[in-house]
Every structure is written in C-alpha cells, then in structure tokens.
Amino acid sequence: MIQIDKLAVVHPDARIGDNCTIGPFCTIGPNVEIGPNTTLRSHVVVEAHTTIGEECDIFPFVTIGIQSQDQKYVPDTITYTRIGNRNTIREFVSIHSGTEEGSVTSIGDDCALLAHSHVAHNCQVGNHIVMSHAATLAGHVIIGDYANIGGLSAIHQFCHIGRAAMVGGMARVIQDVLPFTIAEGFPAHMRVINKVGMERAGYASSDIAEVRKAFRMLFMREMRLETAVQQVEEEFPDSENVRLMLDAITSSQRGLARPDSAMFEINVSD
Asked: Are 166 and 180 in contact (CB under 8 A)?
C-alpha cells in the first residue's frame, strides 16, 4: 500500500514503489522512480530524472536532483541523480544533479548523510558512507566505500577520498586522501591509518598491519615517492589493500594530501 499525503504533489509520470510513504508538502517531479518501502517524511523535493532505491528514510527539507550550481550548466540539459538502497538522508541535505548532458550524480547503498550535508554535481559517493553534519562535497568528488567525512569539512572539486578513509571535522581537503588513512587539518594532511574504520569495515588485523607498514614506507622515509612506491610493490606483491593505495597514488590528478613532516614523530609508535 502506498501512502501519499493529500498535501503532497506527485507528478503523474513518477513511479512510486510498494509501501512507500510520501509525507505532507513533498514535491515529486516527472521521471522520478522511488523504490519500495521508502519514506519521504515531509517537505522533500525530488526533481526530474531522479531514482531513489528501496528502504530509504528521507527527512524534512531535503532536496534531491536539483539543478547543478555549476556555472557551465546549460538550461534544459537532461542530467540524472541516482540514490541507492537503505540510505538515511537527514534534514536539509542537498544533492544536485549532474552538469553535462546525460551525466550523473550517484550515491550508493547504506549511507548516512547527516543534516545540512551537501553533494554537488557529478559526485560519486560509494556504499556505507557517513557524511557528518554540514560536510560538503564540491563537484566531481569521488568517495570510496566505508569512508567517513567529518562534520563541517569541505572537499575540493575532483578530489578522491579512498576506501575506508576518514576526513576529520572542519578539514579543508584540496588533494586526494588515500584509502585506509585519516586526514585532517587546514589544508588536510594524511596522518595515520584509519585502524578503527578498517575494523568496523571488517578488515583483519593482518590487513591493517600491512596497510600501516606500507603507509610508513611511502611517507615516513626520506626518499622520492616514486622510489617508495616501487619498494612497497616489491614488499607486498599480493596485497589487494596495498595495491588499492598504490593505484590511488598513480592515478591521482590533484596530488596527494601528504603527511606533514611535523606529524612523523607523533606517529612512529602508532
């Protein structure tokens, strides 16, 4: 049974799944698809060409699929927004559609976007992501699975935040953060391995030890990064987790949020 409040406005072309609840003052545009068992509590705006998955809980004053704020956006361009399953999207979250014709802003499954957080045009947000209060992603940001973005932090355009990484609260991220690391500061620098985050994501202690050793080899020795990458490849030829870090290094376009040398001594015993 679908429950649509009499004060909601739902476009006739929208497709609403079984057992959905659409609360008062919600507005749902054309070419919207909402999966079963999803709740829009009240005052939620979902604009055209948006897909929302199953069992999502969307709180008041959320906007999804709103036109990109990118100044390059051409009026009447058709772009898309895709939201996965089992996501919690809290009050005043804004998720914008893509900019270029046919482009997509996407959020995976099992994410928690807390109040006032923002996902800009063309972002790719993975699965099991937490964005804390007022965390902000600029355009084209990529967030890996199990990452945690701290409150009041801001991620620059085109930055990549790796799998199971953590960005500290109020950080200004202007370069890529490697998988499994914690970055904080203004601007943000990676400082340690995200041990707790890796444990929560199901990684074994041996996986964490490998990643920690690789991180030290990459950044805590006085050598060129290219040389350090080669040594890590030789040390861990079969480690998928270390390979994920190395691939992030070699594919980085914005450069890395490298550890500040002042942090090295603090982390020697980590």
From this structure: no
